[in-house]
Amino acid sequence: MSRTILITGATSGFGAAGVERFLADGWRVVATGRRADRLQALLDRHGGVRLHVAAFDIRDGAAMQAALDALPAGFAGIDVLVNNAGLALGTAFAQHADLAQWRQMIDTNITALATLTHALLPGLIERRGAIINISSVAGVYPYPGGNVYGGTKAFVSQFSLGLRSDLHGTGVRVTAIEPGMAETEFTLVRTSGDQAASDTLYTGAQPMTADDIAGVIHYVATLPPHLNINRLEIMPVTQSVAGFQVHRGG
Ligand code: NDP
Ligand code: 8X3
Fold it and tell me: Is there a domain that residue 191 lies in?
């Protein structure tokens, strides 16, 4: 009997690559995101025997619950939850930032992630399942303009450790994956569709790819059941952390 994985944010980037990876490995996959056309394209490509798609805005708690209630019998027993849907909006310093963008990041990256986790926890405990949360190096290391985005990812990493603590003895595994720079639609979204800005960031930098991260998610999901990776930080070789800044002169 194949295992079932629910991947949020499956219309693009890490999530879309994850869908392909797990389907290829024989899993049943529940793929979610807002863009119904992309989810339909997945169904057209793979058929509905091992793939179920659900289009909803993850910030809409009622729509999320309706999608969970509507899972067909073959997909209702989620073994692995991948909380991947998320976004950064803007790179403005905090003092110039758009409050609506801050709220959208908090609602998506924190509130929705916690809501879905809460909804699926009883079943995950029943099946001794796993939760894989997509955090970020931005939640570990600050950078100018990272403010609320980094804060939301710090929540994701700390929430993951808290879950580990609470789920002690249940057999449920929890991992926070903290990637650095990876080329997806992430920067396009962050810059409100500025393709040139996205190209400038990634060109010549050899960033990680969505497939790289899908491979890491798959690795974590298929570890022997007595192993738990708590946090997994991963960067391209071309990226590193560079120190402090000092302002002089008042
Ligand atoms: P993409 O922009 O390519 O993918 C983001 C996914 O999240 C899309 O499928 C999008 O689907 C979904 N999503 C966003 N908002 C919502 C919403 N309100 N409701 C439902 N789904 C939503 O970016 P990545 O693949 O790079 O990002 C995936 C995760 O990885 C994010 O949490 C991001 O913060 C994190 N990350 C990314 C890094 C990078 O450098 N790329 C590095 C570290 C972490 P749709 O628009 O169809 O709703
Ligand atoms: C995405 C990585 O460094 O662009 O979470 O914030 S970074």
Answer: no
**Parallel, antiparallel or unpaired: strands 130-134 and 80-83:** parallel
- Ligand nearest to the backbone CA of 87: 1
Reported as a single tens digit per residue, the pLDDT across 163-185 is 999 999 999 999 999 999 999 99
Residue 9 domain flag: yes
Q: What is the pLDDT of residues 85-114, one digit of tens each?
A: 999 999 999 999 999 999 999 999 999 999
* CA 226–ligand 1 middle distance (angstroms): 30
Q: Decide if 240 is inside a domain.
A: no
**Amino acid, single-letter form, for residue 146:** G
Model's pTM, two decimal places? 0.98
> Could you tell me which of 54, 51, 6 has the C-alpha nearest to residue 26?
51
Residue nearest atom 24 of ligand 1, based on CA coordinates: 13
Active site residues: 149
Ligand nearest to the CA of 132: 1
Is 153 part of any domain?
A: yes
- CB neighbours of 47 closer than 8 A, spacing ≥ 6? none
Residue 48's contacts (CB-CB under 8 Å, 6 or more residues apart) are none
Q: 87 alpha carbon to ligand 1 midpoint, in Å?
A: 5
User: Residue 236: CB within 6 Å of ligand 1?
Assistant: no
